[in-house]
Amino acid sequence: MSLIVMKFGGTSVGDIERIKNAAAKVAAEIQRGHKVAVVVSAMSGVTDQLIGYCRAITPRYDQREHDAVVATGEQVTSGLMALALQQRGLNARSWQGWQVGLYTDKAHAKARIVDIDAKALRASIDDFEIGVVAGFQGVTEDERITTLGRGGSDTSAVALAVALQADRCDIYTDVDGVYTADPRIVTAARKMPRVSYEEMLELASLGAKVLQVRSVEMAMRYRMPVQVLSTFANEIGSDLPGTLVTEGNEKMETNTVTGIAHTRDEAKITLVKVADKPGVAAHIFVPLARAGINVDMIVQSASDDGVSTDVSFTVGKADFERALRVLEDEKAAIGYDRLVSVKNVTKISLVGIGMRSHAGVAATMFETLAEKGINIMVIETSEINTSVLIADEYTELALRALHAAYGLDGG
Ligand code: ADP
Ligand code: ASP
Ligand code: MG
To answer: Does domain 268-336 have CATH number 3.40.109.10?
Structure first.
């Protein structure tokens, strides 16, 4: 008898009919003789609405109360899912983050899990009760409710799978697996039957939001097999129809580019005419770091006069205005002429373990974009990804052209 964690995302529990449909999937796994813990997200749109309520009171809200409000989305669906399961004659109960003993640090709105004391949940599951856990939420040592950041129910699910020593964690969502690119934009994208933890981590951290990055980190650390599959297809997890995120294998390593990720979450800032002398980069980036602002891509243009240079970098859109304010406050210390910023940018990233050993991968990317007349603002490479920043309006065109250029299009 296996123990499986089944997680249902926002669209999968988007209305009562969908909750009933998800309950039918759970019932099918029980029918097959498995024990099940269910993790649910809030109904789609609810988390955004709850965040909107907080902002409507004040844009500078107390994060602890924000979490108290925002965590309620998952509370509702956990209760509804338990009811839907009971309605099918199954034994089920809901569990909130605090009831399940999911302890986090105090970083409200992006809390990290520090410990899960899953004894009570495990005992109830062993007693043939289906545990329906509210995803996305936890509790601090001093008993304040926390949330795990957008998309955090994936992380709740994998963490619970690890804590319960489950055999597998199935992530039910609105697509039937992990694709070579976002299938909503690239219609020629192909479903990957398997993807390595390492590549999934890279895809997720570069924007493929099908899994939250931290859920992949955790799955990789504890070697928990994760499967991504559709709530709306007929199969259930035991039929292995989706994408299995697991250890890499040799076949995977022969692909140069495994997939293409993109994110519209960043914005670009350029400091024009910064003095070309030691210490300037520190003057720019230390105050940003102190303000808790993460900087992603950085490029410094070559100085043609030996006196001044331009420095460009990207920050998350959510931090954009704050970053501009910090740089304006530091203008005298840094010494630059003016700030130029572009908010509508997209970062496009090629991902593949095979890039480590293949030359010329980036060249094809630049050629393809040039052919389409797309200007590259910033380039960044690592061992297993190559990323470029382009104007947002070219996102679809660039993704489709690159997908074809690397031979990823499905037949
Ligand atoms: P859920 O609400 O179930 O957590 P999300 O909206 O968070 O679902 O994630 C699923 C979405 O991720 C899909 O609808 C798809 O548009 C997007 N996505 C982005 N990149 C990929 C990819 N490479 N493969 C599959 N889906 C992707
Ligand atoms: N409901 C949360 C969100 O919308 C968590 C999740 O769905 O994973 O981000
Ligand atoms: Mg999600």
So the answer is: no
